[in-house]
Amino acid sequence: MARDDGIRLVACDLDGVLWRGSRVLPGAREGLQEVVRRGLDLRYVSNNSTAHRESVSERLREMGFPYGAERVLTSGFATARWLRERLPEGAPVLVVGEEGLVRELCEAGLAASLASERLASAASAAAGPDALDATAPGTAAAPAAVVVGMDRSFCYETLAAAQASIMGGALFVATNSDATFPTPDGLLPGSGSIVAAVAAAAGAEPVVMGKPGLALAEVLASVTGVPAAQTLFVGDRLSTDIAMGRAAGMVTLLVMTGVTDEDDLRAAAGDERLEHVLPDHVLPDLGGLPGLLDELGA
Question: Which one, of 191, 183, 177, 189, lies nearest residue 19 by Cα?
């Protein structure tokens, strides 16, 4: 699917594409350094909402990749932009997540606070059953939205607070729906597992910002000015990275360094219902990226 006008932008997922835990994946540094050497735009697009863009940029720098907060787009950043377009400045937002997500929301002009901190404040203000109710009289203002992302301290009280707010009318937004994420020791539960718990408790479905939804693709096109047809999107997961890239009209590249293995790829290729998640190109790792860029006229 090489385009006559060539590739101008390369956008990459992080986990499973550039690194796995603290280990840089084969060919990743060299492949992305070649992208920059050719004068192409380079961006990082991640469903991870735990870290602020500056923190992600610092990790990229430490691991030897081209870096800069302006290169980084996360589901947390996309969520903040989406909510700020719909809520007034200073609107209270309850966050089931971590500090990086709170910072993105606050920088967008929203009064975001962690559910755990809100509960602690309520508990210190008044003992009794209202201490578990994020919308109870005497606590902080009722949230206009509940944002759910990765929360490694998730607990029953946080679930109850999110449930109460959503059932009280708050917008329900999920940073992403990834059920798992890869680590050097195997898969661990991801944001999607927590989102599923909140959705079940509240009897509601969220608006999902991350891949495979198109919010990140739309933000990417908006901040770079590069159309989808001239964008190469690189990922390791068929159901999120490749599905979003295909839906947005990008050229897609699957690298086999993350969650998708050859059996997964063969199974998808043999199922016509999964045609929308099949990549345009497949490489063992990013070491083959320069050759593919040549093929695509980049």
Answer: 183
